[in-house]
Amino acid sequence: MTDKTEKTDMTPAEEKAAAAGETAAPGGKPAKSAGKDDLSGPESLNKRIRVAGAPVWAVLIVLLAMLAGILVWAAVETVETRDENGQTEQIHPIRYVVN
Questions:
Q1: 93 domain residue, yes or no
Q2: DSSP assignment string, 22-87
């Protein structure tokens, strides 16, 4: 007769996941299958998908505001430059970039 109480290094959650054919994630929690719980049918198509959290959106808004500020500065301000003869000239940065 064989004894079915073999000693393993797996936690109970890992043993349960192994018996179900799933792999266990670190920490003993069963790994989530490829979204089978999330997509149970056509009624789940109306669920919102979270693309990014609030901190990501905040960083994106700050970067876009900085870009808008740089473009406004480049269109409005002038920069004084000096050529090799010592002559000064006022240029608009946006025109320098565009042309």
A1: yes
A2: PPBPTTSPBPPPSSTTT--SGGGGGS----S-HHHHHHHHHHHHHHHHHHHHHHH--EEEE-TTS-
Q: Report pTM.
A: 0.45
Residue 35 forms part of a structural domain: no
Burial of 93 (0-12, 13-18, 19+ CB in 10 A): middle
pLDDT tens for residues 39-50?
Answer: 667 777 787 777
Answer whether residue 18 is part of any domain: no
Question: Which among 79, 81, 83 has a CA at the least distance from the CA of 92?
Answer: 79
pLDDT digits (tens, 9 = 90+) for 2-39: 555 555 576 776 677 667 665 555 555 555 555 555 56
